[in-house]
Give the backbone structure.
Amino acid sequence: MAARLWIALIVIFATVNAHALEVDREVLPRLTLGGVVIGTLDAVNWDSDPSRQESINSEDSFIAMRLDKRLYESGVAGATVGFREDADEVHFSDHYVFYWNRTFELALGHAPLRNSLIEFPTLRDDDLAYATLVANASSTENQDQTHGDVARFDWFPGEGSHALGVWASSRADDASGNDVSGIDTLGYGYFYEPPRQLRYVVRLRRAGVILDRQETRAATGKAWMNAWIAGASLNLNDDPSSNWSLDTQLIRNFGVDGTNNVGDFYQRARAASRAVVLAVRYTARPALLTRWQAALTLASKDFDDVGDSRQWSLVPGVRYELGQGVSAVAQYAFTRYGDALGGGIDRTLQIGLSFSLEARFNDTIGERNSILNREHGFIP
Amino acid sequence: MTGAAAMSSRAAENAAPGIDHSAHMDHSAHMGHGSGGYDSMMFMTGHKMEPGAIIEPPGAPADTEVDYKVFDIEVRIVQHEIIPGIKAHMFAFNGQVPGPEFHVNEGDWVKVNFTNKTEEMHTIHWHGLYVPYTMDGVPMMTQDPVHPEQTFVYRFQAKPAGTHWYHCHWGTPLHASHGMHGAFIIHKKDDPLKQKYPYTRDYTLMLEAWDVDLAREEIGGLLEGMKQVNTLMEKGRLDPVTHGFFRNYAEFVKAYADGKYVPPYLQGRSGGLEFRYNFFGINGKAHPAVQHMGIKQGEWIRVRLVNASDLSHHMHLHGHDFWWVAQDGNELAQPMRLNTIHVHPGGTYDLMIYGDNPGYWAFHNHRTTYARNNGIYPGGMHTGLFYEDFTPTYKPTITVDE
Ligand SMILES: [Cu+2]
């Protein structure tokens, strides 16, 4: 007993006293905290849901942390964990490990799906989800539209802004009534991503094309569905203090053959469709400090094999920076449904406050795609 | 040509292509160097980037009037290796850290063509030299910062004699320490110090401290901002307020009061950036990569310490006393016999060491936390005085992790 206590004490002592001994020291990881919390007062007038009333809305808030370390030889590995709120539930939306070096990147775990390409300047990421992403045809849950089990490999040929990606995913399934899903997504993509630090001085901020192959699991049986996503984000002028930019994305979903109804969510996800989103954004940055932003986003989607099935939206919004990462926000959303979708108009006015952060602690690493690494030699 | 011609005959002669000094000239300028003045161009409406421009400030004789020793020096961003495994991007004079060491004689006329090969702004300050104030390198006090791809011509007479140095004075806490520093030695004819201490070797040790992590973030951040600034400047649309430039204090106060300017030191803008130095060095290297000093029995050597960091260092020599003979280039009236010298930021300290105790002797910072590499002792500011003419009974090797 006494001997065991001594061994325990020695072990504890050795661990605490790891300093200056030839032992494995615990190396503190870099910690990157990211998150957004948005609170809005919503005034609504929805034909699609006449019972819907004004509300206090904190949907789509999330917090995530990335922990990573340099490795002994080269490259960086770490983990991301994140939580996202949806319909008053908290989801453990991100928990994945990753590795990257100068030429490639790997990720494995529960992570964002690669089913959209461009972020639009709407208040919340899911504001126009019907048009901005390829829906999960096997689940109606919000969190299953954006996240799933993912294994992904990105290669950076030329070690620059170009990336070729291939990934396999397992999207959550509540449609088939069984929880065994297996790999139900294969995706391939090309991405052009110059360093984020250059976003006000390059013409093209981001562009790419994705092929998303999804095996849908309706009660009627399994079927593969292909969707193409193409998009670009570009600067319309070259004035970083008074910036105009444009974001656009197209989704061509070839659907599952024989889906001629769009009455429920699954059908809408499986029906062949075309979606386009386009946003124009003005950012005022006097003395290169971002002060306010105004954006107008247009979205439209219709289904190939269903008449009068267009849904379109017009979303103007403004954001005024009260402090770094703290904004007063306002957005109006107008959405019109074709008769096949029930017809009518939804109107939403939202006013609120948004708090976002991206804070790095103990940064001993830097980023692969930083200006220094890209333009002045890569330091692993 | 109006004011520019009046600056000096030389300035007119060498007027830079593309730089129209007349446009911003304050004709009533009386800046104390005779016939005219030259003001900042930063407030000139439509002030533009002029890559390739050669800036010739007033205040020194023309090429035809004196015989200049001419030096070309440029700054660029390099990957500098402090020790194996640790590389950092730094601003480097002629690509090296520290920058090249100048050796000139007292009274020499010196002309330095300084070219900025980065996208950031820089200057050179000649620390300890009696230069015309227009050559002193203090942004917006004595000159405009040197813009990307511009050449600024510094001209001055080398005085006073002694150990001096030069460093960038733009963004000094980052720039000067993270690369832009070098020794400037002015030799005196019949140096009385050499007569008193007939030294045969002369070592310069620049004492350095780096925070390679903050530097990565800050240099990256500067480049991000400067690419935007340069984009604006190329089109003549840069508001000087972007750089925090104001014509005078009242204008600064007003810009803040009007909400036109949100100063970056505000607690709403600055997270309180602090250096947490994790590497320390001598002449660009950390132990065990630092070169040793050699000495022989009966030999005098001179050691010039230059503190290029903003920390204090306490250099201790084992097995010897040394004579501290000069500070900031000036000979001390009374040399002091010490074995630990306290080297304060910006200062230069000259030591004479006499070889009378053969062996291998540590010479290190006795603030021993600065004799570490990323927290691991020994490292950093640690070198040795190695006798070359004796038979060792214990041969030194290397230790890096105690
Ligand atoms: Cu500089």
